[in-house]
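User: Design a sequence. Structure:
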């Protein structure tokens, strides 16, 4: 009987280690392939956001600049929001597409030169912060209109809006001005190291990003929540007060209007916060730790994911306005009808690109709003006949509600 030689224990253990190593490498390779596919897809999505956001924001600006809307305080702020949103799309969002589709070494767009580093970072921080504060100013202005009877005639006039916007702009520029002079440096090898200084590698992440989180997200969100909660509470109270004194048909219209306005406030506030907060939290609390513990591909995937979510908020305002603001949609439709008529060679001499309807009395919204006396305001409040966001209501509804 022949004795079969036994396999040495050392050889068996060595074989198992090799198999486990091969299995781990295969798993890691599969994970990297999956992460790379997600990165590639999201980088293309970043380019789509730039295109869609630019077109949508430009259309928003054109519609809001039309004669029927541009004379209103809220519209002035929303125009600035659209401009800032467009600028912000060409910062970190454009970098995502450049890094993973154009650069052969996955180089950041900010690392091309020191000028790119400072201008892109400064432009992005300022535009994001100014956009959020102009949205905050909308809620703040509407809440003051309800709380203080003389706000509209004293400090809330249309002519003052440009000064408020300039103050917000200069504050955001001044707050971030150090980025133009301190951010980034050239290494001894000639490469650019952005978002840090020679003496402080944490200059932007996480130190300045923490300030950005407060200025861009937390403070605006707190103010918008307080103002919008107050507006919604007054809206509900006024709608209940009108139920017993108005006909059923009017009741249904009022209730539906209040529901739309409440939905608009909730959408504008929470879409902004929900989509922008993850990126701020990641860059403040997790980015530094993940650089030490997480593989580079996985880290890139997380960063481009939160950035894509954040900049979606700045690319979809056009669709939010179309969905929640009927007057905006009507103005957009009228603008396209006028453009089609112009392209078809309509010889109507009365047609003007900036005016939609021949009845000019219908669009005295701003005049009606400023010509109200204090006594009319008090009677208006006494009977709980509040009007919110008149720029998003038809002229007929406004004239009826003021009478």
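Assistant: Done.
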């Amino acid at each position: 009987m022949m004795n079969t030689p036994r396999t040495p224990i050392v050889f068996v253990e060595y074989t198992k280690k090799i198999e486990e190593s091969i299995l781990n490498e295969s798993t890691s390779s599969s994970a990297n392939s999956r992460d790379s596919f997600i990165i590639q897809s999201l980088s293309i999505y970043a380019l789509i956001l730039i295109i869609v956001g630019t077109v949508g924001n430009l259309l928003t600006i054109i519609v809001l600049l039309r004669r029927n809307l541009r004379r209103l305080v809220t519209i002035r702020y929303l125009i600035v929001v659209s401009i800032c949103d467009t600028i912000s799309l060409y910062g970190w969002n454009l970098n995502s597409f450049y890094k993973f589709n154009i650069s052969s070494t996955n180089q950041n767009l900010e690392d091309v030169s020191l000028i790119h580093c400072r201008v892109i970072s400064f432009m992005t921080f300022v535009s994001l912060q100014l956009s959020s504060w102009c949205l905050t100013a909308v809620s703040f202005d509407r809440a003051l209109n309800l709380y203080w009877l003389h706000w509209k005639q004293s400090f809330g006039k249309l002519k003052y809006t440009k000064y408020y916007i300039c103050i917000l702009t200069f504050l955001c520029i001044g707050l971030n001005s150090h980025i133009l002079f301190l951010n980034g440096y050239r290494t001894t090898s000639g490469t650019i190291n952005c978002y840090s200084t020679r003496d402080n590698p944490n200059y932007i992440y996480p130190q300045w990003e923490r300030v950005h989180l407060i200025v861009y997200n937390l403070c605006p969100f707190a103010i918008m929540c307080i103002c919008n909660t107050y507006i919604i509470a007054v809206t509900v109270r006024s709608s209940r007060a009108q139920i017993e004194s108005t006909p059923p048909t009017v009741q249904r219209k009022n209730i539906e209007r209040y529901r739309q306005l409440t939905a608009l406030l909730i959408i504008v506030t929470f879409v902004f916060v929900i989509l922008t907060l993850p990126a701020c939290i990641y860059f403040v609390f997790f980015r530094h730790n993940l650089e030490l513990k997480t593989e580079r591909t996985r880290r890139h995937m997380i960063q481009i994911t939160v950035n894509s979510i954040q900049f979606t908020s700045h690319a979809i305002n056009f669709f939010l306005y179309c969905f929640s603001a009927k007057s905006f949609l009507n103005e957009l439709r009228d603008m396209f009808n006028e453009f089609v008529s112009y392209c078809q060679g309509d010889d109507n001499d009365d047609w003007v690109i900036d005016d939609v309807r021949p009845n000019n009395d219908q669009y005295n919204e701003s005049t009606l709003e400023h010509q109200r006396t204090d006594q009319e305001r008090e009677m208006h409040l006494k009977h709980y006949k509040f009007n919110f966001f008149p720029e998003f209501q038809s002229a007929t509804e406004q004239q009826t509600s003021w009478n």
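The chain is about 75% helix and 0% strand. Residues 349-403 have pLDDT under 50 and may be disordered.
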